[in-house]
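RETRY 2/3 - previous attempt timed out on the joint model. Re-submitting the same 278-residue input unchanged.
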Amino acid sequence: MERLSSSNEVIRLFVLIVLSLLVPLLPWLVSGIGTAVYQPKKKQELLQREQAFAKTSDVLSTLSKPLSGKEVKEYQVLMTNVVMSPSWIQILVGGILSLFGGEINVFTKVVDWSRREAQQRLREQAAAGGYDEVVNVRMETTTLSKIRGGKDKTTGIEVLAYGTGIKY
Amino acid sequence: MQPQVNIPFSNTETIPGMTITQMMGVVTGSTVRAKNVFKDIGAGLKNMVGGELKAYTELLQESRNEALYRMLVDAQARGANAVVNVRFATSSVAGGAAELLAYGTAVVVQ
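RETRY 2/3 succeeded.
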């Protein structure tokens, strides 16, 4: 009888140890799911939106005047922005990769994704306003940071895309 | 919403259909903004999975409109009636605050 209760104690202790190890790992689990499921889903949605617009020629151009040389009747500065952040897992992997130098693939993907998103939003905004073309498109990237534990910590990157929407 | 300043602006070198007769110099408008603690926590949670942080996207959009508005007020004060070649710049100052700057050339057009 005494032995049984002591083995029960051992099991209880074991369960406690496992639980106390699992709880700090839970955010990482969520982060892993986010990286593996949520991000690809959002990227797929973006791809579909881009494909819907790819049927006609791209309205965005970095030239300061429309190539066709048509007379401009109406114009308006359009701007869109997006703030994106890599997941914890991506930050961890990126941190390890940056020890070796070279291309940090995980970060390239996030920055590329946000830039595509900003451009796509500009296209959608131009379509919603009925603009024929967006000329002089410029893009800006900034990192956003916040203080945690006395040091600046990067929370995300902002991509701004802006240009002049014109109607012929 | 701020009162509207009715000045045409463009990020190209000219205002379509008008000619520039006079230059009034470079005008700027800027603002430094930070998000409140609660939204910061929300963004911190979203940080875990990655992807878009909507709270920050909205914050920066609002602030940039404010910077743009200040630039137009500056242009109006100088007696200009249009602003050309508008550019935006952003920098993070410290701890969650970002500075948004809009600048351009104030001109008189006819």
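Chain A has one domain: 2-167. Closing ticket.
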